[in-house]
Amino acid sequence: MSQYDFRFEKGSDGVAVLTLDRPDTLNSLTFDIYAQLERLFLELDGDETVRAIVLTGHGRGFCSGGSVEEIIGPLLETNLDGTLRFTRMTGAVVRNMLRLRQPIVAAINGVAAGAGAVLALASDLRVMSEQAKFAFLFTKVGLTGADMGAAWLLPKVVGTGRAMELLMLGDKVTADDALRMGLANRVVPADQVLAEALALARRLAAGPGLALGMTKKMVWNEWPMDLEAAIEQEAQAQALLLRAHDHREFYNAWMEKREPRFLGR
After folding, report:
1. How far is CA 129 from CA 110, 117, 166, 185, in A?
2. Is 249 inside a domain boundary?
3. Model-wide pTM > 0.85
4. Does one domain contain both 151 and 73?
């Protein structure tokens, strides 16, 4: 029996595919799934066999958010401490995704709503089906649009004005609009979403993992910094990378007129 309530498969190419697998509910999330995602993204950081991850959904949806019957109903019966434990756990999922050194590519095959929209947002690259839609619909159900880090992440991806509109109104965002505002990196026909996401993930997995992981870390770490602090952090990080194996391997391959064989260190 799988230890997860979703599918998680590692490939020999260094790409792992995480497929949310509750198609009858458009892959809604449960308490257990949140906890499993939190743990998995934490454990993957030390997994040398995984160099990139594809996150997708089974069936018509990517993820419709938290289950109304299995999460919202029970939460209404709990006390504040219990509710806070839950909201901290959901935020920890996103925090672990952002801290994970391996890049995550979201293959958004259908609707990404509520928490599902935030999971896609917390991925590093997003490939959308032409038929897929985003919906940050928290305010439509009487909740703050600032959930799971969305109010921190979304302005950095699409700008504050657009983020305010999406988080306050909760309107659906088509794939074409998502591409225009930078919320999607690629929009492709529905039958090509997973293949396109896998192609990107394999390209990343074959690349210099240490350099990619450091790039991801620096992008998020530098947001609260002023220019001087950011330049100094980049100087220190680049000094380390200049002395790392993969950069020396690039140099040797260049001199020997061959393709580099990156090892991620």
Report:
1. 7, 14, 20, 11
2. yes
3. yes
4. yes
